[in-house]
Amino acid sequence: MNRLKLGTVQTMTVLRKIDTGYVLEKDGEQALLHVNETDKEHEEGQDIDVFLYMDKKGNITATTSFPKVQMDEYGWVEVVESIPRLGVFVDIGVTKDFLVSSDDLPLYTKVWPKPGDKLFVTLGVDKKGKLLAIPATEGILYREFETAKEDLLNKQVSGRVYHTSKEGSAIITEEYYRGFIHHTERKSEPRLGELVTGRVIEVKGDGTLNVSLRPFKKHGMIEDAETILQHLEENGGMIPFGDKSDPEDIRGTFQISKAAFKRALGKLMKEGKVEQRDGKSYLIK
Fold first, then answer.
1. I want to staple 169 with a disulfide (CB 3.0 to 4.6 A). Which of 21, 45, 57, 164 is the partner?
2. Are 77 and 117 in contact (CB under 8 A)?
3. Beta strand pairing status for 29-34 and 60-63?
4. Are 9-63 and 217-283 in the same CATH fold?
5. Residues 154, 209 contacting (CB under 8 angstroms)
6. Where is the S1 motif domain (predicted)?
7. If 0-12 CB within 10 Å is exposed, 13-18 middle and 19+ buried, where does residue 142 land?
8. Which CATH architecture does the domain made up of 145-212 adopt?
9. Are 195 and 241 in contact (CB under 8 A)?
10. Cβ distance 200 to 154 under 8 Å?
């Protein structure tokens, strides 16, 4: 049985030098330190600290490059590749990229992380003993959170999405505050690991934030009006929506609330660009 703990930094002894690198030993177990995995010369009998993982052939491999994360230690890592049905690979700071399994990602691939996004992960093993990168749970992140102060109200914050769902998106800001973006406060669902910037609309009693990705009402009304005009132009000058339409139907089409729709529609009617008839809206040409 292998007594070397993969995914950790271990002190091993140089057993001998070979053409491709060094054979290391600890407690009767061996690992290969390839010449590409170290920037120094090592002598037989020397003790060195190395990070251990398994290569594609199943061999225990060592590197003197220490990763950003290891077993039971968390850190931010960058996504480098996404493979449908398999998951995403992240760069932890060593030669090998590590998989975040699809089992630990959202059900819908459209909100999977893309290259450049970042995840807060640790290393763990699956049932076969293979090392994987595992995203932090809410309980783990809770230890990282700072308590937000009331003076953040209406201030701009940026943060990474660490959980996303139909109900909303949870973020950890650059200052390590916990923020929540309700689905009504976003036009589209952000990706896991995406960096988003929004406005604080509430500082809660527990020191967490409610954040909106939508602009202030005045600016949002202009943007929403342009969206409605675009829909009218793309649908022959008529859309089956008016100020009495079902809120869910409005949100499903325009990704805005009924109140925001009515404000934008009122603006267009005041400008003489749109009129309502029989519960529908028409473009005035």
1. 164
2. no
3. parallel
4. no
5. no
6. 154-214
7. exposed
8. Beta Barrel (2.40)
9. no
10. yes
Report the distance separating Cα 58 and Cα 184, nearest Å: 48
Q: At what angle do helices 217-234 and 247-254 cross, to 10 degrees?
A: 80
Give the DSSP letter string of 131-197: EEEEEPPHHHHHTTPPPPPGGGTT-EEEEEEEEE-SSEEEEEETT--EEEEEGGG-SSPPPTT-EEE
Q: What pLDDT is recorded for position 217?
A: 53
Nearest by Cα to 207 from 235, 179, 174, 173? 179
Could you tell me the mean pLDDT of each successive run of 10 residues in the chain, 285 residues long?
82 95 93 93 95 87 94 95 96 94 94 97 87 94 93 93 93 96 89 95 94 70 78 84 81 76 80 84 82
Tokens 């251990």: give the residue.
52
**In the CATH hierarchy, which fold is given to the domain comprising 9-63?**
OB fold (Dihydrolipoamide Acetyltransferase, E2P) (2.40.50)
Distance CA 13, CA 22 (A): 10
Handedness of CA 169, 115, 172, 259 (dihedral sign): negative
CB 190 within 8 A of CB 164: yes
Backbone angles phi, psi at 156, to 5 degrees: -90, 135
Amino acid identity at 237:
G
CB atoms within 10 A of CB 89: 19
